[in-house]
Write a structure and sequence with these properties.
CATH class of the largest domain: Mainly Beta
Oligomer: single chain
CATH topology of the largest domain: Thrombin, subunit H
Shape: globular
Structural class: alpha+beta
Strand content: 25-35%
Mean pLDDT: 75
Distance between the termini: 17 Å
Number of strands: 23
Number of domains: 2
CATH architecture of the largest domain: Beta Barrel
Largest sheet: 7 strands, mixed
Length: 460
């Protein structure tokens, strides 16, 4: 059988097949290099080191507003005849003189006018729209080191003498910076939990140069989301997009303060969506990450990831240090839902079922069939396989068993383990959740009452 890896979600995600191997990943969270063996829990401390005017292409690719000269007209005709310059058409007006809506053109809006104008550059428009609401967060914490506990033992004090064992205690201040963005004009700011984890003081610097003392209203280490409040009003606010509608290949724009370089903008694409915490290398998190190749570096953590329309679709949180172009963001829909709980309650409740699961494919199904003594017959190749049920868990109490294949959660069809995790995360602790499973060819409906997740919930 394959290696199992625990996940703090409603279930433990298992690797889909053994070809994933057991190599380690280096994952950066706001500047802290964390060595993660496959399936290992996140370890170590994290050190902390990120104007409204919409616009779109209304000029031709070369950005010329004035009439062409005769020579230019000839060159233009030659380009059209040879096809040169027509491979990336401009997003100009259509044949009826109407401007295209953002994101609807077939051209490449990343190309800017050669005369240096920024008119029509969708990246500039997005940054001008969102940039004023992106902040720098400086956090500091006091780290104390003192006399080892064993040296405080009276026996050692009496035996060696107090004077010989005196070890002065010391204090030092750790400082670092991250990013965040304003979600409400009265000073509510969204950022990563690891940016403000254990901080004694939090300072927030706006793009306009103003600085404020920040109060952490709540933080959730399970999803790495935190909310900060500053005493200000009529602040610029980021526009929020819909991360559920993201598709691989869309433009992605990151704004933040990498390595202390404030207001840095990087561009790439959405590389993938729904990356599980296990795939990313943080099995103790409970997020279906957005993957992007927009450059993200230590200090970008907590900053926004934008789509081509300048809407926030994610919150940048991690990169894999051994690779290039592998950055990960928390979907804004999830971050916003968690932020609402942190604002109202100061904490987040995470529903927990207590199952180990993996996405079922024909290859995975064959591996289980070929493995003796699994304890169940697998006669279906689609859905999410329950590979194990934790003792004394809500799943065990409801009658779920290893070998069951989940087909629906909350009357919604699912196809991946991440789908199950998302549906359970949206449920309520203590409220019955309908789960439809296939058990040895028969369809069963089971009602499960999720408990609140805690480290003690992981019983195996």
């Amino acid at each position: 059988m394959e290696r199992r890896s625990s996940d703090p979600a409603d279930s433990d995600n298992l690797p889909p097949h053994s070809s994933q191997g057991s190599g380690s990943k280096r994952l950066w969270l706001a500047g802290s290099l964390v060595l993660l063996g496959a399936g290992a829990a996140l370890a170590g401390t994290r050190s902390l080191n990120q104007n409204a005017q919409p616009g779109w292409l209304s000029r031709n690719l070369w950005g010329r507003a004035q009439p062409e000269t005769g020579q230019e007209q000839a060159q233009s005709s030659q380009k059209q005849a040879t096809g040169w310059g027509s491979g990336i058409p401009a997003l100009g007006k259509d044949d009826k003189g109407a401007e295209p809506a953002p994101g609807t053109g077939t051209g490449s809006p990343i190309l800017n006018a050669v005369d240096g104008s920024t008119e029509g550059n969708f990246i500039v428009s997005a940054v001008q729209r969102v940039g004023p609401a992106v902040v720098r967060i400086d956090a500091s914490r006091t780290v104390r080191s003192g006399v080892p506990d064993i040296l405080e033992d009276p026996f050692f004090r009496d035996f060696f003498g107090r004077q010989g064992l005196e070890t002065p205690s010391s204090e030092r201040v750790q400082e670092g910076s991250g990013s965040g963005f304003i979600i409400r004009e009265d000073g509510l700011i969204l950022t990563n939990a690891h940016v403000v984890e254990g901080a004694d003081e939090v300072a927030v610097k706006l793009k306009d140069g103003r600085s404020f003392s920040g109060e952490v209203l709540g933080q959730d280490p399970v999803t790495d989301v935190a909310v900060i409040k500053i005493d200000a009003d009529t602040l610029p606010v980021v526009p929020i997009g819909d991360s559920d509608q993201l598709l691989p290949g869309e433009w992605a724009i990151a704004i933040g303060n990498p390595l202390g370089l404030d207001n840095t903008v990087t561009v790439g694409i959405i590389s993938a969506t729904g990356r599980s915490s296990l795939e990313v290398g943080v099995p103790d998190k409970r997020v279906g990450f957005i993957q992007t190749d927009a450059a993200i570096n230590p200090g970008n953590s907590g900053g926004p990831l934008l789509n081509g329309r300048g809407e926030v679709v994610g919150m940048n949180t991690a990169i894999i240090g051994d690779a290039q172009g592998l950055g990960f963001s928390i979907p804004i829909n999830q971050a916003q839902r968690l932020a609402n709980q942190l604002i109202s309650k100061g904490r987040v409740q995470h529903p927990f079922l207590g199952i180990q699961m993996l996405t079922l494919t024909p290859e995975v199904a064959n591996q289980f069939r070929e493995t003796p003594n699994t304890g169940f017959d697998l006669n279906i190749e689609q859905g999410v396989l329950i590979a194990g049920v934790l003792e004394n868990s809500p799943a065990e109490s409801a009658g779920l068993k290893a070998g069951d294949v989940i087909q629906k959660v909350g009357n919604q069809p699912i196809s991946t383990a991440q789908d199950v995790q998302d549906r359970v995360a949206e449920s309520e602790v203590g409220e019955a959740l309908a789960i439809e499973v296939n058990r040895s060819g028969k369809t069963l409906s089971v009602l499960v009452e999720p408990e609140e997740f805690s480290p003690q919930s992981r019983r195996s």
